[in-house]
Amino acid sequence: MPDGIGCADAKYFTERSCFKKSKPEFQHDLKSLFSQLGLSNTPEDIEQFISGHSLTEQQSIFEAGFWQPAQKQFLIESHDQDSDWCEAVNEFDVLLRARKKTPFIGRRF
């Protein structure tokens, strides 16, 4: 903000820039989700995990038997609270369902 101009004086400054501290930017993508779940998040390890795990059409990602209790709880809370992780969890769900239909060779995570 230019010197001498307060928030109340500058109509063109947004409320966010004047009154709220900005949060550090954090990626809520698939790679970060793997890290948050305590899993290796290299592209190769993500591909290997997805290749080795799948969901049935009727199965929820939260019901999968391969989660540790803390991982399952994180996924449930992310979905129920519509958190920043929700989109990454949904992408992960789709990939676990599509595993049988489409190979992941060459996909970049």
UniProtKB/TrEMBL annotation:
Q: Which domain of life is it from?
A: Bacteria
InterPro entries in alphabetical order: DUF2789, DUF2789_sf
State the Gene3D superfamilies in the record: Uncharacterised protein PF10982, DUF2789
Q: Supply the name of the protein.
A: DUF2789 domain-containing protein
